[in-house]
Every structure is written in C-alpha cells, then in structure tokens.
Amino acid sequence: MDQRDWELLDKQLSGVSLSPPRNGGIIVLAFIAVFLTGTIVGGILFAHDSKQAQTSRDAMAAISLINGVPPTTRQN
Question: For the CA atoms of the chain, what is the radius of gyration?
Fold first, then answer.
C-alpha cells in the first residue's frame, strides 16, 4: 500500500472507534436492574402459581374424600 491508500483508509475508518465504550458502568447498572426486576417479578408470579397449585391439590383431595376414593399420591 502506498501513502495515498493509507490516507484513504484513514478517511474511511475515521468514524470507527476501536476503544471500549465509555458507558461501561451504565451498561452494568442496567444489567443489574433488569436482573433484579426479573427476579422480583418471577418471585411474585411463582408465589402466585404455587398458591394456586396448593389450592388445586387441596380441592382434588376434598373431591376424592367426598367420592369415597382415597387421594392419589405420586410415588417415585
């Protein structure tokens, strides 16, 4: 490559930065915020689902007792 090619290459790459982003701390804080938000929302939804599952199991046990059939238990 001659001098002219190097100058053209410099012009083409003038907008490209090879340095790391300066907002690294902001990205880390955003990642932590999204993680914590997901954990909190997941905990709320899981607690809600587990209450429904317990209610469902209790209802099935009550129906089984009313019908005179012992409730089935899952054996491993």
Answer: 31
